[in-house]
Fold these 2 entries.
Entry 1:
Amino acid sequence: MDSEDDMHDANDVDSYEEDYYSGDAMYSDDDDDAGYEFLDNASDDSDDVSVSRQQKNYTILKEDDIRQRQEDDITRISSVLSISRDSACMLLRRFNWNVSNVHEAWFANEDAVRKAVGMLDTTNIKPPKAGELPCGICFESYTLDSVSTAACGHPFCNTCWAAYISTSINDGPGCLTLRCPIPSCGAAVGVDMVNMLTSDEDKKKYRRYLLRSYIEDNRKTKWCPAPGCDCAIEFDLGSGSYDVTCYCSYSFCWNCTEEAHRPVDCETVSKWIMKNSAESENMNWILANSKPCPKCKRPIEKNQGCMHMTCNPPCKYEFCWLCLGQWSDHGERTGGFYACNRYESAKQEGAYDESERRREMAKNSLERYTHYYERWATNQSSRQKALADLLQMQTVHLAKLSERQCQPETQLKFILEAWLQIVECRRVLKWTYAYGYYLPEQEVAKRQFFEYLQGEAEAGLERLHQCAEKELHTHIDGNASQEEFNNFRTKLAGLTTVTRNYFENLVRALENGLSDVDSHGASSKTSTSKHAAGTSKSKSGKGKGPTKGGGSTRTDDLTGWSCDQCTYMNPKNATSCQICHTSR
Amino acid sequence: MQASRARLFKEYKEVQREKVADPDIQLVCDDSNIFKWTALIKGPSETPYEGGVFQLAFSVPEQYPLQPPQVRFLTKIFHPNVHFKTGEICLDILKNAWSPAWTLQSVCRAIIALMAHPEPDSPLNCDSGNLLRSGDVRGFQSMAKMYTRLAAMPKKG
């Protein structure tokens, strides 16, 4: 019985993976990278899926890996150039830890390199004679054993050395290029002296700076920006997508170190983030919704009431909201207290037009921005919620479901994948709003197409979310049968695939700047645009993305079937796709 | 605390011994506080400061010599790297290029060197810096000389 069960499991998992990853050659090659430890099997398993789905053009380095690499580089340089490890370390740091640059510079002009780094030629320096030596800092005399020197031979007592090095370490990473205290000397003070002379705490800080320098000064490595994460990412420069995912499961753009933001490019992201934080939006709001008090110039928002304004104390200036003139000038002859003829006539003459128009424009642009920002932020928070749900699923629900359905947790992986997909989709969807904000207004066809794609994406995601959240709970809490659960499995796995395909195509289309649209550009009539969008989308889908199990998975479920070509969810009874007319 | 006091005391004794050695610098320790010093320095020759005597005030921190002393001109001076009102000095060795091997005496020497070789590209006194940067050496020199006469020379009669 047991073995039969196992057999079944194995088959099931296999076929299931095949469905998902057929055509995705990258899937199996990097599960067992050296040094890859699972902290928590369940969670890492699922992260692994999202990592391995991409081509791996980067390496994640843990602190130990970094130290190991640094040590290896130092060893290499010190043995090739026959210099001490201490000098090799200073040399590497000077050349941003680029081994080949060190070689190049060294063999081109050894003297210049030595001088720049502070590696003195020690042959001419006499060792200090026996007897007492004066310390160059505290000016006291010491016996030889309590005095130390760098390569230059300038003597300082060990206490002053410790204080000197410690001061420099506490000043920051500049301590890595510390020199002999004698201003004209320039002999380097390296890690050996630090280890010999300073406290454990200072040594630790120095080691930390050295480690940081290895990552931060190197052109090919960057720290993972997630709070509390100690990993670094080494990236193969010039190799496609910048999106990387750390072991801590944080995804970010290696180029700009903002969170992962495909399909939007780094420039747009930085503009958008700047905009979100910028005072300029506040200014726009103030401009659109307030007028400055004519006397004290403080901005005043009129939220209700009549045109008779009284500024706050101490100003207390009374004025007319419409013409900004003094209120005491107003009366029956200017059209009563509740209207202002001066304003009306001036408006007719055009005197108020410009400032009014500016206010109007600012108000419109603010509303437009708010529209996109709200949706961007909502998807952001939905994503956070989905991440929390995913965690909840991993830690609580999965075990419960496993008990109830008598299925091992490995077989329930499809639920986690669904949730991971939801998280990823929320991320993409979020950035499509930044994309939409910067899509030029005048490109009507593109805008319509974009909005259509976005709408479909949202609807698809909602379906998946609904299924993964509501329907799942009937299986966790309710008494659904085994068969119903199997149906649910098919449905959820299918929805996950369909949604993944859709979003991947969406990302690709947006990254191409919706280049397909131009050929359809003319068809901007609303009645036909839906259709045009449909075919165009299916084209982009087919042109670039029949790879990921596109043909093999067709989802049938209780409500309908999803089109292979455009992923549209058709009603069950439709024989051809209602969007792109591909027959079923 | 103790280290800085001991070191300053060494410098004090050194100054007493070498009083004659450098006639351009006269360093004096405050009678009641070893962390406060004043110095009289002679304007270097062949500069508009020649003939003037300038007073400097030193305020030495407790972390001395690991941290640099604070120095400012008490005598008014027209120089690109000295603040005209406060006498603050913009000199790298008094900021990030400080080394504990410097002494108060060597700081004075560095300031004299700065008087002879102004750095108009990082000015604290913009008017003075602009004169030099625009190439108006004569204008700069006459201004500097005038202030030397007004502030750094004994009043006659």
Entry 2:
Amino acid sequence: MIEVKNVTKRYGGVKAVDDISFTAESGEVLGLLGPNGAGKSTTMNIITGYLGATEGTVLIDGEDILERPKQAKAKIGYLPEQPPLYQEMTVRRYLEFIFDLKKVRLPKREHIDEVMAIVKISDVEGRVIRNLSKGYKQRVGFAGALLGNPPVLILDEPTVGLDPKQIIDIRKLIKSLGKKHTIIFSSHVLSEVSAVCDRIVMINNGKIVADAATDKLSEAVGGGNLLALEVEGSASAVKDAITSVEGVRRVTKGFGLSYTVEYESGTDVRRAIFRALAKADCPILMMRSGALTLEESFIKLTEGGED
Amino acid sequence: MSAIIKRELSSYFNSAIGYIVLAVFYFFSGLFFYMYCLMSNTASMSYVFLSMLMIVMLTIPIITMRSFSEEKKQRTDQALLTAPVSITEIVLGKFLGAFLLYCLCNAIYVVYVIILACYASPDWAVFLTTMLGMLLMGGALIAIDLFISALTESQIIAAVLSIGIGLLIYMLDSLAGMLSVDWITSLFHNISFDAHFTNFINGIINLTSVLFFVSVIAVFLFLCVRVIEKRRWS
């Protein structure tokens, strides 16, 4: 659906984006993740045709964004980092303008009502955009991107500046939209990306440092096969019980009641450890897969990029 | 494109700009009409039009100063440039929006000529050619000022530059007279708005003058498109 091929963007001598390639399939929610200034917005601006790439091509459903801009752009709904709102217009007027600008062929009034209901801005339709709160402005921009039901949605940090409840609403919305649309969604909030996206492309310093399914990412980064435990009981008894389990390589005692278990890949030792510790009368208070959290892999990858 | 024209016009009247421009235009044209026609008992409006040239030079920059500079500053150009419309359509839409407001300014002359017609018989042919001249010249200025607006992110810079260039254009004919180098004099004379406009005021539709203004419009709109296009690549 979206193909980004060897895209490079140079500003003078500086490469803001350096030979980036990835694809997003139809119905996929792809997270573009990276620290501030990594090149996320530039990449999105290139995908949407706002900026021209120095090298490389972008295909939207087979249409080249530079060769056939009108056809390609008609398939995209874009919410830039700063929503492009005309401050002096009312919400409805603004959406009517975007509707006309995109040459949408749907019943105008009904469609705008529908989109306003989806992003929950129906109550402010008559207000001037300048006077709206940041959360509302963000959602008006979102509504603009949704107009015309474009098959591709490009959302640049759509949850910045929203309160926690609104963030949850927007995430739910993106998730539900992901069933029918192809979505590229950028963020530097990791929990958000892991909650919403099927796949994550991590960018640092203009380069892709990881491209994997969300649940596979930490594995791809390495450092799987770890288990974090909190167990009550004497340290030696706990250690003995765990080491007796087949597949366990090493047990290290951490702070207080916590232990880290390293086990052989391809095995799942959790049930066996549970039984062994139950037998030794050492109750497990907490157990979680110690595979790197997204935060840890993010930091690992982005720090690695700077070396 | 019609969406952009509509938005431009509504933005003039959502802010004070549309009203201020109309008020200034109507006030001064009314003043000149009173001074040159009513007070001196003449049905010829040529002095009114000639005096209004200065006002046109000063008000058009106010109309166009925000056109592209403010879009860039507020990042609303992202909505325009990622929508399925070409840059040419965007520029034409902006131009026509500004031009329609300018036409609205000029509509007041129709009122004046009707007032004159109640008491005397104005020269309709001259009135019509002059109106044509006013619109062509205004269109050319709008195109130049739109181009200037596309160059900067600040509407103040756009306005000041536009007014400066407007005044220069206004004075070009007088400047030409001061210089003794022949080819410069003739060049200045040929690109002087004043000289071309005088043809229309005399009731002449000179093809050269029509073509001159139309070319200025075409060239500067083209340059405007190029400036916006170039920004995507730098």
